[in-house]
Design brief:
Keywords: 2Fe-2S, Iron, Iron-sulfur, Metal-binding, Oxidoreductase. The structure is a single chain. Helices cover 27% and strands 24% of the residues. It contains 12 helices and 21 strands. It has an 8-stranded mixed beta sheet with strand order 14-15-16-17-18-19-13-20, with helices on both faces. A 7-stranded antiparallel beta sheet has the order 3-12-11-6-5-4-7. Strands 1-21-2 form a 3-stranded antiparallel beta sheet, with no helix packed on it. The N and C termini lie close together (7 Å). Residues 1-10 have low confidence and may be disordered. Bound molecules: FE2/S2 (inorganic) cluster and fe (ii) ion (FE2). Fe (ii) ion binds at residues 212, 216-217, 404.
Length: 452
């Protein structure tokens, strides 16, 4: 092993192996410093637009000490405010016990302590005995503090830094790569959250690479090869599968099972995925896969099985008013299967469904996080189910996710071991890990991956 210590300077490729110090995962000082240096500086995915369809609908979003109220102020306008009363600092909207966030509808926000009242535009509309302040409650001093808010992909994004650059710039190039998938048209099928015993980075990194698939999810090895790449994309990163020998990788997440009879293995993989992950596919794809054996002759080449499966499922969905995005195969190959949006959000996209993960710190404890996953798909107009965030104990998550969970707490423990010499992510398959830490170090001023 060569000399460790040089900071990576040319970030865009990160092709060389690096060592990732454990500090970012386990240090209480680092976790406390994240509040000011990271969480109060970056754009954060804070909710979905469909959660606040009508004027007066609101949700809250918490990130460590900070809480934000996001409200539909008018048909066209979403606004965000610091969730704190400017009178004496009461949190204005409480999160009900056991809930991930508050959600409701109001004409205005009334503080429960002394009754100061605020309109949907954040302006104060009522202060009891206002004259006692002798005219000094002016110039916005009695109004709610505003928070930067913008939208992309059907999500609401907030930034606690009033000086931050625009969201569109921040999301580059992820947004442009994901726009063709029409993610804003998808609605959740389920969404779960849990407080977990690991750092938020450990949780996100359990899903940002394909290197773990063969060992952590050995059942999938019956269905094909899951070796995949990871690329650094500025602040963000993405991952995708390598093409099977002699083929272009242009199918993204909607992949065929391999083996002697792809008609059979595709059905097996689809049934397994639906039953054990409950994501990354849809009921339409599963049911068409189950008919491949009846509808295609034995010996149909894999490429034709794939084409028939996807075209038939697309047509059947279209007939019930569910229109998949059209994405050019060359684009699919570049877009891969998932994007890690810096710092704590992952979008696993496809033309007809997506799986998203987010992890946030639980207070400033480096050993705990709030982990959540939401699974989306396309629905006929008006038929999307009403879902809520369901607190779900680890043993009640889909089995494939439990396999990932089994590593997460153990990684957190292992990284504290005096004998741990820092992470050594695979430079090809786990470059997303190096990318995260390289970018984190820009905000944090510490913890950069070290070259050998
Ligand atoms: S703290 Fe809100 S009205 Fe007093
Ligand atoms: Fe996994």
């Amino acid at each position: 092993m060569g000399e460790i210590g040089k900071i990576v300077q040319a970030p865009e490729d990160l092709v060389a192996p690096v060592n990732v110090p454990a500090e970012a995962y386990i240090s209480p000082d680092y976790a406390r410093a994240e509040v000011d240096r990271l969480w109060r500086k970056v754009w954060l995915q804070a909710g979905r637009l469909e959660d606040i369809p009508e004027v007066g609908d609101y949700i809250t979003f918490d990130i460590v000490h900070d809480s934000v109220i996001i409200v539909r102020a008018s048909a066209q306008e979403i606004r965000a405010f610091h969730n704190v009363c400017p009178h004496r600092g009461r949190k204005l909207v409480d999160v009900p016990a056991g809930k991930r966030n508050a959600r409701g509808t109001r004409k205005n926000f009334i503080c429960g302590y002394h009754g100061w009242t605020f309109g949907l535009d954040g302006a104060n509309t009522y202060v009891e005995h206002q004259e006692d302040w002798q005219g000094h409650l002016c110039g916005g001093l009695a109004d709610l503090g505003t928070v930067r808010v913008d939208t992309w992909g059907g999500w609401i994004w907030i930034n606690l830094d009033a000086e931050a650059g625009p969201l569109a710039e921040y999301l580059n190039p992820a947004a442009a790569m994901l726009d063709p998938y029409g993610l804003e048209n998808m609605r959740p099928r389920w969404r779960k959250w849990v407080i977990f015993e690991c750092n938020w980075k450990v949780a996100m990194e359990a899903f940002c690479e394909t290197y773990h698939v063969s060992t952590t999810h050995p059942e999938f090895m019956d269905f094909g090869q899951f070796r995949g790449w990871a690329r650094n994309q500025g602040l963000h990163s993405n991952i995708g599968y390598d093409a099977p020998k002699g083929q272009e990788e242009d199918s993204g997440k909607l992949r065929l099972g391999t083996g002697e009879d792809p008609r059979a293995t595709t059905a097996e993989m689809q049934n397994f995925t639906w039953a054990n992950a409950n994501t990354n596919t849809t009921m339409t794809l599963v049911s068409v896969a189950n008919r491949l054996k009846d509808e295609l002759p034995e010996g149909t080449p894999a490429a034709d099985v794939s084409k028939y499966w996807l075209q038939t499922a697309r047509a059947e969905d279209e007939a019930r008013g569910v229109v998949w995005a059209q994405v050019d195969p060359a684009h699919t190959a570049q877009a891969g299967t998932a994007w890690q949006i810096f710092p704590n959000f992952q979008i696993g996209h496809a033309v007809n469904n997506m799986l998203c993960y987010q992890a946030r710190p639980y207070g400033t404890d480096p050993d705990k996080c709030i982990f959540e996953a939401a699974v989306y798909e396309l629905w006929p107009e008006g038929e999307a189910p009403a879902t809520e965030w369901e607190y779900t104990e680890p043993q009640d998550w889909p089995p494939v996710l439990q396999q990932d969970f089994a590593n997460m707490a153990a990684v957190q423990q292992g990284m504290k071991n005096v004998g741990f010499r820092g992470g050594q992510p695979n430079p090809y398959m786990e470059r997303s890990v190096a990318s995260l830490h390289m970018n984190l170090a820009r905000f944090m001023g510490t913890g950069a991956p070290r070259t050998y």
